[in-house]
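Q: Convert this sequence to structure tokens.
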Amino acid sequence: MPDIFQVDEYYVLSFGPDNKEPNRVRDTIGKNRLLPELIEKQVRFLYGQGYYLYKHEVQENKPIRVPLLVPTITQWLDSWRESGVSDSIDIYINKAIRDFYYMEGIWNKWRMTKARRVDGDKPVAGLETVNPTRCRFGTRFKVETGNYEDANFQLVLVGDWTNYNKKTLKIYPRFNYSVPNDFGVSISYNRNPSFGEEVYAYNKYFRGIEEWLQGSNRTPTYINSYYENSLSAKLHVIIPYSWVEKKKSWLESLCTENAERKENNKELIKVNGIEIGTDFSEDLLNKYIDSEIDIFTQYLSGAKNQGKAYFSYSTAGEDGKELSWRIEDVPLKYKEFISTLIDYDKRADEVLLSSKGVDASLSNISKDGVTSNSGANVYYNYMVYIATLYTAESVVLDALQFALKLNFPKEYAEGVRIGILSLNNVQRQENIAPGDRMNNNKV
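A:
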């Protein structure tokens, strides 16, 4: 699929080579046994105790965030649902954080106040996140593939991109920061910039670990397939041709008998559930042999067949010798196979953990070589991790900060900002009063 494709009069910017990048990220991560819960931990780490208002101040030559109580701002944030916005401020931030960790970009729907006739009315009623799998940039003006920039796309098309046409898509104007009040509803895209990407944000860690993710996701399939099909030894079954000729003669006699039964209106004979009929053919012989092989194969595999036995009759050839199937073992290295899968899985876990930057002591995922997960060690790792979250916070709250600026320009000019409590001045434990230390707080 080209970078730019057309939907009626709209020119749409493809999100990924097949326009399914968000779907691929969602599906690949969603199938992994490790990453969804790890991302949820990241969401909980960043969300902390929710939002708060603050100002930056310098104390003892150190910049710190000083929490504030501003009732007018809090009342606005708490009134979103009453104003027709679908989510509360807390749910909005929670969704925005999750979108950031999956796609590093957040689609924000701006709900503006319908009637702003009184001086001092707040223009922004609230914000909503839009599912990243449903949003694409577009324009009504022709744009050449490979010759575009972010400013070319002033529309956002929302819909199901696995099955779309003009009638199934909703068209929204892109939020314009220079004239924010032009539209009652518009959509902005707030992202963590990706190197070499002009418009969309791409999940950086996903691109680096996609092959590992796919391999890790296939491991359970390999193991389950082994348990289902390889609980018994692999065997080479040799069927003597004289046995086949014996069965051929037997089937021919059954067909003759069936012909007599048909004339006498009697029920015809069946073998292994196969309609024998009245006329013998080579196809009938092949069907019979296949049925015998199926019965034997079902006995060989499957968890429910352990300890069961397979019974059959042998026959004698013209020389009087016994005719029976000969079964030989095929040597397979099952232990090495399973050990290789386990080793790969361990390595994949290490790669996934390192890509997310979450220490094993915080993720609760065991890691070889870890000998100490003391409270001090865990808290140190927590502080180091929290210190890396300011970029995430800035992207998650980017639209909300601008909404604050529009609705409360005076307070914004005075330095009031919205923050997330998890990032409120993490301190060393020895600098905190004993009664307020983390090990005394129940979470």
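The radius of gyration is 34 Å.
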